[in-house]
Specification:
CATH superfamily of the largest domain: Periplasmic binding protein-like II
Radius of gyration: 27 Å
CATH architecture of the largest domain: 3-Layer(aba) Sandwich
Distance between the termini: 68 Å
Shape: elongated
Number of strands: 11
CATH topology of the largest domain: D-Maltodextrin-Binding Protein, domain 2
Number of domains: 2
Number of helices: 9
Largest sheet: 9 strands, mixed
Order of helices and strands: HEHEEEEHEHEHEHHEEHEH
CATH class of the largest domain: Alpha Beta
Length: 244
Amino acid sequence: MRYLLLLIMLSLCLVSCGTPLIPEPLPTPVSISVAYPLYLQPSADRVIECAIQQQPLSLFITTSSTAQPDLPGQLIKLQLGGLIPEGFEAYQIGTEEIVFIVNADNPATQLSTESLIEIYTGKMLHWDFGDHPLIEFVLYPEEDELRVFVERNLPDMPRISFSAEIVSTPRHVLNTVANHIEGFGYLPSSWVEGLDEEMRERVKVLTLEPKLAENLIQPVLAIIDGPPSAELQELLGCLQQPED
């Protein structure tokens, strides 16, 4: 009993005389905002993946392609090629190729530039197989940046002259083409590359003429207003590494 009492008193003495442990304060998260158009969703997903690896970092995402002054921290704007605004810095974080897709059961494998123009102008309304079904062209709104880019790279900038199905995102294009043998549309190649095995078997990428295919390849740029902070430089370094 005496030894037990001495042990308790010794323990109390050690507790009262010891230096209390003071936890180190957690680092303050650094805020970074990202604005991007919906068709660059795969690139935005890469930004999120890199941000998760980098601590402490608070990432704020908006699907607007225009800069918003109320967003916290330094702003990154993702864009597909194009002009760099004066006073901004641009960093290439990837490359996108715009591809045209059809349903996997469509026997077509190639698409000439002439045929594409004929589809746009309404001279070609039907597919050349089976009972010649009507081409179901799935298209973005007239003011959509992706549509503007594609049409700017077509000879003589043809105007579509028949009723297309207007959708807002590449996801809608994929779903329509996958579920309709008549379906036809275009989207960035990263959307196709990111499909699961089941969905990948339901769509097919058409081979374009080399000149048009080359014109539809553009860098994905991260546009920043002013020099990047140390945290932003680290994030950009992750984004500029080759993808697996």
